[in-house]
Amino acid sequence: MPVREVVRFPDARLKTPCEPVGDPGPLEGELRVLALDLLDTMDSFPGCVGIAAPQVGALVRMVAVDVTGHPKARSSNGRLLLVDPEVVDSSGSCVMREGCLSIPDFTGNVRRAEAVVLRASDMEGTELRLECDAYEARVVLHELDHLDGLLFLDRVARAADVFPRKRYR
C-alpha cells in the first residue's frame, strides 16, 4: 500500500474529533486501504512508533502503534492496528518528552498515565483488550489524543516545557 503524506499543524483536521468506524466486522474497501496505509506510513519514518488516521487526513478512529524493540518500552503488544480504541482503565502518572510527525519542529514534556487498559478491534474485527505500560502506554495515549482533536502541545503544562527538536546529521 502507498505511504501517505503526513498532515502538519496547523491543518484543521488535526484539531477535529474523529468519527467511529462503528462496524465491528473486518475492515473492507477504503477503510482496509487506510489501515494498511497507516502501517506503511508509520514504517516509512525511522523511529516512528505510532500514527493516527487524522495525521494522514482521514477523520476516523483508527491508529497504528508498534514499540517493538524500542529501548524505552517495557510492554509491547507488537504491531497494532486499533479500530475505535478506547481507554477503559488507567493508573499512575509521569512526565516524559514527546514529539509528533505532525509537529516536526518541536517536542514537549507531557504528563500521561503510566499504565492503561484499552478496548479496540483489529482489522479483522476481532475485539481486543490490551494492557500497556510505560512507553507503550504513552504512545497509545498520544495517538488516541489525535482521534479527539488533541495534540501533545495541548497537554504541555507551560511554554517552558516546549523545545526545538534536536537535529542529527
| Proportion of helical residues | 10-25%
CATH superfamily: Peptide deformylase
Computed CA radius of gyration, to the nearest angstrom: 15 Å
- Please give the order of strands in the largest beta sheet: 1-2-3-6-7
This entry's quaternary arrangement is single chain
Characterize the overall form: globular
**In this structure, how is the largest beta sheet organized?**
5 strands, antiparallel
Quick structural summary:
The chain has 169 residues and is an alpha+beta fold.
Question: If you had to describe this structure to a student in words, what would you say it looks like?
Answer:
By secondary structure, this protein is α+β, with helices and mostly antiparallel strands. It has a single domain, classed as Peptide Deformylase (Alpha-Beta Complex). Helices cover 20% and strands 31% of the residues. The protein contains three helices and eight strands. The chain has helices spanning 29-43, 134-147, 152-155; strands at residues 50-52, 62-65, 80-91, 94-100, 103-112, 115-121, 127-133, 162-164. Strands 1-2-3-6-7 form a five-stranded antiparallel β-sheet. A hairpin with a 5-residue loop joins strand 6 (115-121) and strand 7 (127-133). The longest helix has 15 residues, at 29-43. It starts with 28 loop residues before the first helix and ends in a 5-residue tail after the last strand. The model has no long low-confidence stretch (mean pLDDT 95).
